[in-house]
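Second opinion, please. Pick holes in both lines of this record:
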Amino acid sequence: MLTITAVIALSLQMIAPYLIWRSRWNIPTHLAAGFCVTAYVIPGLFTDVWDRFSDDTIRLFTQINAVGAVSLCIGIFLGNSIGARTQASRIAIAKRLRYDPGKLIWRVMLVVTVATIGIYLSYWIMGFIPMFAEDPFSAKQFKGIYRDMYYRAAYPFRFSFSILSASIPLILVLAWLKRSPYLMMLATFAFLAIFVSLARAATATGVLFFLGVLAARSQLGMRWYYPLVLLVFPFGSVFYYMLGHVLEVQALQSAYVGESFSDYISSGAPDIADQLGWLYGFMSGDYYSMGRTMYGGLVPGNYQWNPSVWTLTFNDVGADISEMVTGGLRLSAGEWGYANFGWYGVVGIPMLSGFFNGLMLQRIKSALPVMNTIQITAALMLYSTLGMQIVQFYFLSIHNIPAIAVAVFFWLAIIRKKSVRVPTPARRPTARPVPRAQPSSPPARG
C-alpha cells in the first residue's frame, strides 16, 4: 500500500493540471502523463525497485511526496481561483491578437535557420556526433575524451540546441498548415539535429507535441493520441537499447538489465531508484541546500550548487563530476522542497509552484476560444518554456534562457501593440446666433 501511495503521489505532482484544465488542448499534461507511466507506474508497480531500499527510506520517501502532492494541488486550485477573478474578457483578448501569421512565420524561419546551421556547425567543430561516437553515452553527456572537444563549441551548441528543442513543435505545425517546402525541409533538418544528439526527451516530446496539436483540432483526435503517447514513452525508455542493436554498439545496451520488459523500461527511466538512492544518502546528514540550488543552475559550468551537480555531490559539495556519465538526478517538487528547507520546503515549494501553474493555466484557458491553431501552439510553447521555468522556480537553468527568449520573440509576433489614443484638438466654441426679436402683437381692441 505504501508503494502504491508513492506512485500516486509522484504522478499527481506531474498531472495536477488536469484538476483544473481537462481539455484536449492541455498537451503538456498529456505528455507528462506519458512520462508518469514510464518513470513511475511501470517501475513502481511492476518491478522490484522497492526491495533495494529499507522500509524507513521508503516510508520517508512516500511521506515527502504525499505531502508535496497535496500542497501542490492546493496551490494549483488557489492559482486557478485567483486567475479566474482577474482574467480579461474574450473580446479584449481577441483585440490584442494578430491573426495574420506572416510576421510569426518570418521570425520562425529566421531563428530556426540560424539555430539549425549553428548546431550542425557545432558538430563539425567538436569533431563528433553523439549517435555515431565510439562511446555514445559519454559523447551524449560530453564526458571523458569528449569533454575537451565539446568545450570548443559549447556555447553555440547549447544555444542552438535550446532553441531547436523548444521550436520544433511550432515549426512542424507551420510546415504542416502552410505546406511550405522550405519550412518542411527546415523542420526535417532541425529534427535530425536533435535526434542524433541522443536527447530522447527533446526528440520525442517535440514530435508528440506537434501530433497533439493536430489531434486537438478535432473532437475524435484524442482517441488515437492518448494511446500513442502511452505507447511511445515506454518504448522511448528502451530507445538506447534498440538503437544499440541497430548500430551494433554494445555501450548503448549495457545500461539495460533485467528479465522482463518492465525491468528494461525501469533501466531506461530509473527515476524512482535514483530518488530513493538520493534520499537514502541524504538521510545520513544535514545536507539542506537552503535555497542555493534554486539559482545554482544559472551559473555556467559545473557549479557546485547547480541542481544537476548537487544531486550527485550533496554529501561532498564541490567534488569533481567530470568523469560521471550522467546529467544529474530528477527529483519531484516535494523532494526539492525537502532538499532545500526540510519539511517547511515540502509544504511551501510545491504549493507556490502549483499556484504559479494554476494562475498561468487559467490565462491560457480564457484565451483559447479566440485563438487559432498557430496562436495556440505559440501560447503553449511560451507556457512550456517561460511558464515551466516559473513553475519550476526551484530548478532554474541557464540552458533554458535561449528557448525562453525565442518563445517570447515568437509570441510578440502575434500580439498587437496597444494603440495610443491621440487626443483630438478641442473645437473652438462658435457663437450662437442671437434670435431676432419678434414684433409684439398689437393690443387687442376693446
